[in-house]
């Protein structure tokens, strides 16, 4: 099968290392489904994994985690899907990525695709939706039934993929007051379109801007940007007994004592934890994606695809990586396997 990835020992830098590959057709394990890839989206993880050294002697590295496609074949123990089903998922960092014609994935982390979306718009959702859902409802312990209605959530980095889903879930299910940060006028407008009640600029002082809106503290903080940089600010903004969740790993030990007097909690969210450690509750990601698909089909939330590139080629994948690295794009960049109409 055709794929795009990185060859062991390739010394080319950045997106130039992405090259066409010819790999063997994957064979499903008992819980696997074999998917014909129809669309993928790119994530910051793609950039980090692309830039990680790959020494000679290793297998080629195929990137890509978000995917929407069609089930072609099923392993002997698969019960959730059958050939012909349309699915979407975020895959696992322990396995070959989705930048390929065909892809293997464990059925327990896969959802049936929203029937109201095409493949390209569905492919933008899985990774961001899983990370946002787990961060809000598992790590921050917010009720997905609206039992914390009226409380305030600050989303630092609201216009990216995870932030774009988190804003929608926080409004539609949790019924929170959502404050999102974004630095450009276009990304600020995007956050408002998604439902944010207040949008402030993370390049300026957050406390001063919140006070201007009558807020001195918030109940919950979801940090999707530089955790080291924002930690002390978050510690000052969180309410006593409040909760903070971050996705971006810190470069240095965090000053956790700043949270002690408030009895505030801090959690990490790692969307790949379940697959990385094969936790007994892996099927929760199937259930989350099922809920997301229902919300989309009910018209209660939408896709976050804002740029679609047609055709999985070296040139197009390099271009998608370049767009992502340059910043300035709200939502998600998607590559559709189909040529433009």
TrEMBL record:
SUPFAM superfamilies on file: GroES-like (SSF50129), NAD(P)-binding Rossmann-fold domains (SSF51735)
Annotated SMART domains: PKS_ER (SM00829)
Keyword annotations: Metal-binding, Oxidoreductase, Zinc
InterPro entries the record matches: ADH-like_N, ADH_Zn_typ-1, ER, GroES-like_sf, NAD(P)-bd_dom_sf, Quin_OxRdtase/zeta-crystal_CS, YIM1/Zinc_Alcohol_DH_Fams
Superkingdom per UniProt: Bacteria
GO function terms (MF aspect): oxidoreductase activity; zinc ion binding
Enoyl reductase (ER) domain mapped to chain residues: 11-335
Similarity-based family: Belongs to the zinc-containing alcohol dehydrogenase family. Quinone oxidoreductase subfamily.
Protein name (Swiss-Prot/TrEMBL): Zinc-type alcohol dehydrogenase-like protein
Species assigned in the record: Noviherbaspirillum sedimenti
């Amino acid at each position: 099968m055709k794929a795009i990835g990185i060859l062991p020992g390739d010394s080319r830098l950045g997106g130039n290392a992405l090259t066409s590959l010819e790999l063997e057709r994957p064979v499903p394990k008992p819980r696997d489904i074999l998917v014909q890839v129809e669309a993928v989206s790119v994530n910051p993880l793609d950039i980090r994994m692309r830039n990680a050294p790959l020494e000679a002697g290793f297998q080629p590295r195929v990137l890509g985690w978000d995917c929407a496609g069609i089930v072609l074949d099923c392993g002997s123990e698969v019960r959730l899907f059958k050939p012909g089903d349309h699915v979407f998922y975020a895959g696992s960092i322990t396995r070959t990525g989705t930048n390929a014609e065909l892809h293997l994935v464990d059925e327990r982390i896969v959802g049936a695709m929203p029937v109201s979306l095409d493949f390209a718009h569905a492919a933008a959702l899985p990774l961001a939706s899983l990370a946002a859902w787990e961060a809000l409802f598992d790590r921050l312990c917010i009720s997905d039934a609206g039992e914390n209605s009226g409380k305030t959530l600050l989303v630092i980095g609201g216009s990216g993929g995870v932030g774009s889903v988190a804003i929608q879930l926080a409004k539609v299910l949790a019924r929170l007051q959502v404050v999102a940060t974004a630095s450009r006028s276009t990304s600020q407008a995007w956050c408002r379109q998604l439902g944010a009640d207040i949008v402030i600029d993370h390049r300026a002082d957050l406390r001063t801007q919140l006070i201007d809106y009558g807020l001195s503290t918030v109940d919950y903080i979801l940090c999707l940007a530089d955790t080291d940089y924002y930690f002390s600010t978050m510690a000052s903004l969180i309410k006593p007994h409040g909760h903070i969740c971050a996705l971006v790993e810190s470069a240095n030990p965090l000053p956790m004592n700043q949270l002690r007097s408030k009895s505030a909690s801090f959690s990490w969210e790692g969307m790949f934890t379940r697959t990385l450690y094969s936790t007994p509750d892996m099927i929760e990601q199937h259930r989350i994606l099922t809920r997301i698909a229902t919300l989309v089909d009910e018209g209660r939330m939408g896709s976050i695809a804002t740029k679609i590139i047609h055709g999985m080629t070296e040139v197009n994948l390099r271009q998608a990586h370049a767009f992502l690295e340059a910043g300035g794009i709200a939502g998600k960049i998607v590559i559709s396997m189909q040529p433009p109409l």
